[in-house]
């Protein structure tokens, strides 16, 4: 068996063989595919549709909030819109985004494997996702739901007249899709690594996906059983969570947040993984403190399970437990900060190039830091009481979820687009898109910090007139953001036909995915790779290239 | 084990070696790890509802004691024995499949399936009795002894039906999987180098058994422990 290293493959022409896209044709070859790459594409198409739908609801809310009066949407419609925005964006877009699209496509290739360990289960997870998504769409069509994405009881079980059972059923089903993806990744990472690919040679994206998968596996079933209990309570009117019938609404909140706080890490950990890949590739350096970055992912996954009740400081939990949860919440900042410092240290004296993935990741680092630091504000008991249920909270979690997770998704999408499609996206337009997203995002959400601190509550369609200036700024920003998000839709589709051919390794990056042709063959590699190098060994690669070119 | 030492580049494939794996050993390790990981998810799934059960037991000990007395401990006890025995036959089936003894594997798997069906039959008998006693939660629920405790007794019965129902659902899936495994054993698919499906089936079956080992004392035996009532 010959070993293939990036030194050899670097300068080879892509083999003139069939790739995963043209190996067979027809709708059934996609709908029944067991190829992780095609399933990744299926996910990409589905979650993009959900992203557009969720974005539509967000835009309608921002338009309503242009004026202090509730003039565009009735309060009932507004309630449904923010609920659907939250449910669609969290359960149907953010949770599957990086894991199910980029993870599905890239992870097995980064491991040097032919596929995930369980290809059929992988396809099953997409079908479960689609069943959940169609249930969600059905709910939208027949009249929506107005509980907020948190489904708080007893409103959701006894008082709401909207389609709670349909929505929770959709979320329940999508949860199993998420669990199966996590299960597949964990087994694949343990059992399918190429010869020589030890744990400490793994790309940090793999470590991040491993930590994410652990959270998906251990948190999602709690949401599932909680939603089952919610559905039972609503269906037969018994008092599992309804205080009027002897139930405990706090128990619902505990169980809901036991999933939904770690769910934030399902969204952000993969983005951190992308950040490590991109920062190394576009500074041409080894990631500073590899083991710290790797273990901080696991630390975040672990600590993420211990902080859920910081969502409940004003819900009537005891002062002592609130203090402990506040204290533990501060701890999550430590591994997060370790990552940010290590990325920054990697930038130092690196030869930074300003390609689109790097622009997104630089934005990600800044915005995630803002989101993280304001998260510390909220972990503080006194300040949290002041700003609970205000726009400060809204701004904070959008900095994490949009400024963090979505930026990371777009970075990864651009970084691996040449590998996925074999074509380059147009760099100029992509940079413009990244700039618009960054500017639009900050204009949308920074004013919301101020609004929240001044006391504007979330989830109302009308507000006091003195808040109008900042709200107009926010809506203006949202319009820019919308343009920034629509641009990639256009130029990425354009690039499928007109983009420059990418070649095996357009970024000159290291990692097994850059040693196989673009798009990769059906089995990923023409022969099983043998790994003899450390992760992110850019110094060695630069040295090798220097020798070849006699510089 | 002679078949397994075939070199990868000779392209002699075992009929059940899936394309993404290098050899049967890797495939076996992946299958068993996959099931263990799945069971971790399942533990959290049942764990959530057990925790909720435990919290309400702490809040409403009296109602829990009364409701616990409605359970048929004899039926539950027999079911416990049936299920533990089925775990024994399942474990032995894994061993005989590994040894390549088709006859014994078939008998043991069939016995496991029979015990599973017996469990479900006894469970159905209990469900039927509870239904006629008016102990199914919802509009038909009837409890006259002490009306002030009725909603709490009903809450116990929600957990009873919910948890045993989830468990029974797992049993039904298990029996279904056994039918499939038996049909494969019938076609002589298993032998010393390939028996992963039987072992993975066994892991699942033991897990469902262990869940019952928790449910039986929680729902039948201890609801009235440590509670005084008149």
Q: What is the structure about, briefly put?
A:
By secondary structure, chain A is mostly helical.
Write the topology of this structure.
The complex is a heterodimer of chains A (551) and B (230).
Chain A: H1 6-9, H2 27-31, H3 36-64, H4 75-110, H5 119-142, H6 155-159, H7 164-191, H8 204-236, H9 249-283, H10 290-303, H11 319-347, H12 356-379, H13 381-387, H14 391-421, H15 427-454, H16 468-498, H17 538-549
Chain B: H1 24-59, H2 61-68, H3 73-99, H4 102-132, H5 150-186, H6 196-221
Helix pairs in contact in B: 1-5, 1-6, 2-5, 3-4, 3-6, 4-5, 5-6
What does this structure look like?
- The complex is a heterodimer of chains A (551) and B (230).
- With 551 residues, chain A is mainly alpha-helical.
- Chain A has one domain: Cytochrome C Oxidase, Chain A (Up-down Bundle).
- Chain A has 17 helices and no strands.
- Chain A has helices at residues 6-9, 27-31, 36-64, 75-110, 119-142, 155-159, 164-191, 204-236, 249-283, 290-303, 319-347, 356-379, 381-387, 391-421, 427-454, 468-498, 538-549.
- Mean pLDDT of chain A is 93; it is low at 6-15.
- Chain B is mostly helical and 230 residues long.
- Residues 1-10 of chain B have low confidence and may be disordered.
- Chain B has one domain: Four Helix Bundle (Hemerythrin (Met), subunit A).
- Chain B has helices at residues 24-59, 61-68, 73-99, 102-132, 150-186, 196-221.
- Chain B is built from six helices and no strands.
- Chain A binds chain B through residues 1, 113-119, 179, 183-184, 186-188, 190-192, 217-222, 224-226, 228-229, 232, 236-240, 245-248, 251, 255, 258, 523, 528, and chain B through 8-9, 18-22, 26, 29-30, 33-34, 37-38, 40-42, 44-49, 52, 55-56, 59-60, 137-139, 151-152, 154-155, 158, 162.
